[in-house]
Amino acid sequence: MFDGGLTMSFHKVNCPPVVGNLSKIRSQCRTRPNPCFAVQMSSTLVQTDENGDFYESKKISGSSSTELKSQPQNSLLSQANTVGIIGGVSVLSTLIFLEKLVWWSSRNGEECVPFVVCSEQALDGGRRPVHSSEVNGEHIIIQNLRQKRIFLEKSGARCIVMPCHISNAWHDEISESCSLPFFHIGDCVARELKEAKLKPLDAGSSVRIGVLSTCETIAVAPYQQKLQNQGFEVVLPDKETREHILMPAVESWNQRDIEGARNLLRIAIQVLLIRAVNIVILASDVLQNILPREDPLLKKCMDPMDALARTTIKWAKSAKKGFIISALKQQSGS
């Protein structure tokens, strides 16, 4: 678990495109310290019982760590703008989201948004595959995610986010009885696109938004419903495009055929653009990594995690401002 606070050095991480278990990550990833950057951050390692209560924790700052007393605690953080983050399928994708949250919120010398992170093992090497259609399998995953949400609430989080395309398919179930703001990634995307005031490319039609995902249904559903609620027409790749272009692009990427993967993904995006979509949402961590950052096609694409990060930072800054105003009023009143 991590919360914003003390200072640690920033590292650039070079990782392979396909992330497996943690042992593979350790053997294949290389980190290089960059002395030019530093972020305000500290790490809190916490163990909980099955009810989400704390029974042991450690505080880490830099290279040293101090063990805290092994006793239950009510809250790790007390900041009014603390963000609780439920990690997703990939540890790397969670770290990428954290990087955006840290750097975007600390621009212009501002303090980094305080946060607590809790990863979900059921979505990453758990006993049941995340794509399982079994009712019992989904129930276990939902229960695990709900426990993580409760843990974050007890940790002092004042809002909850899930930077995971798949987890948001169960957002309603996970957020049930949650009294905190719990941002849905599909809502964040739909809201930003609505505010962009896009114009239809075909006369007499609605604004069309394309969605590409490596998961045919479960990762698409959170976006499809929210976009349609905002009046957008959602365009998905047809069966032929999916089977003969999109999935082969992923297979090529996994086999380290970088150029082949890029060419196939470009074709898949172009297929949707030909169908007069304004924007193509890349609802997959793998698809986000394939094209180089300078590829002009990315100007027609959207990373949902960017929208989630922007919404989270906007909320955190507003919550902090509200807390400061409230404190000043109390001080002047006394």
Question: Can you tell me about this structure?
Answer:
Helix content is 41%, strand content 21%. The chain has a four-stranded antiparallel beta sheet with strand order 1-2-3-4, with helices on one face. Strands 6-5-7-8 form a four-stranded parallel beta sheet. The chain has 334 residues and is α/β, with parallel strands linked by helices. It has two domains: 2-183 and 306-333, Rossmann fold (3-Layer(aba) Sandwich); 188-302, Rossmann fold (3-Layer(aba) Sandwich). Helix 9 links the parallel strand 11 and strand 12 (301-302). The model is unreliable at 1-48, 54-73 and 124-133 (pLDDT under 50). InterPro entries: Asp/Glu/hydantoin_racemase, Asp/Glu_race.
CATH architecture descriptor text of the largest domain: 3-Layer(aba) Sandwich
Number of domains: 2
Rounded to the nearest angstrom, the distance between the terminal CA atoms is 37 Å
- Major pleated sheet: 4 strands, antiparallel
Structural class: alpha/beta
Task: Please state the overall shape, judged from the principal axes of the Cα atoms.
Answer: globular
Multimeric state of these chains? Answer: single chain
Helix content: 40-55%
CATH topology grouping of the largest domain: Rossmann fold
Discrete helix count? 10
Sheet-strand content, in percent, reads: 15-25%
How does the SSE layout of this entry go?
Blueprint: E1 2-14, H1 22-28, E2 30-48, E3 54-61, E4 64-67, E5 83-86, H2 91-105, E6 115-118, H3 135-155, E7 159-161, H4 171-174, E8 182-183, H5 185-195, E9 208-212, H6 221-229, E10 233-235, H7 239-254, H8 258-274, E11 279-282, H9 285-290, E12 301-302, H10 304-333
Parallel strand pairs: 5-6, 5-7, 7-8, 9-10, 9-11, 11-12
Antiparallel strand pairs: 1-2, 2-3, 3-4
